[in-house]
């Protein structure tokens, strides 16, 4: 801040203008003023630092409160599934009312099968080549059809 040459010039001027008797008291008073100014600057800096910390804590507190009230969950959900397609795919179907549109599109005829007819014969083949769900039911062979025995050969 001050160079030694400047301090020497200021000291010599003070010695000449103030005098040797009053110089020690004047320097003591100047030291007290400088100490008070430094103390006030330190308090001011401490108060400014406290206000900055308090403002940062308020900001952090607001962020924590935002996360407490579902903000974090919503943020993750928006990041992972922004359009909601995954959530819609995982939603359980509504089982309270039957879906009649699926029944209307069924390849099975609406008329009940004739008495004694097998359920396989009642089902019409699917137009797209798919096997109907009732195709897994196999009717028993009529009596005398041979069953597991190989056909007899005539000699």
Report on this model:
With 155 residues, the protein is an all-alpha fold. The protein has a domain at 4-80. It has helices at residues 4-18, 23-80, 85-90, 100-104, 119-122. The chain is rod-shaped, with a radius of gyration of 49 Å.
Give short descriptive properties of this protein:
single chain; rod-shaped; 0% strand; 155 residues; mainly alpha
TL;DR?
This protein has 155 residues and is mostly helical.
- Based on CA atoms alone, the radius of gyration comes out at 49 Å
**Helix percentage range:** 55-70%
Number of strands: 0
What is the strand content?
under 5%
Question: Topology as H/E string?
Answer: HHHHH
Shape: rod-shaped
What is the rounded distance between the termini?
Answer: 132 Å
Class per helix and strand makeup: mainly alpha
Task: Average the pLDDT over all residues and give the rounded result.
Answer: 75
Low-confidence stretches: none
Query: Number of helical segments?
Result: 5
Q: Largest beta sheet, briefly?
A: none
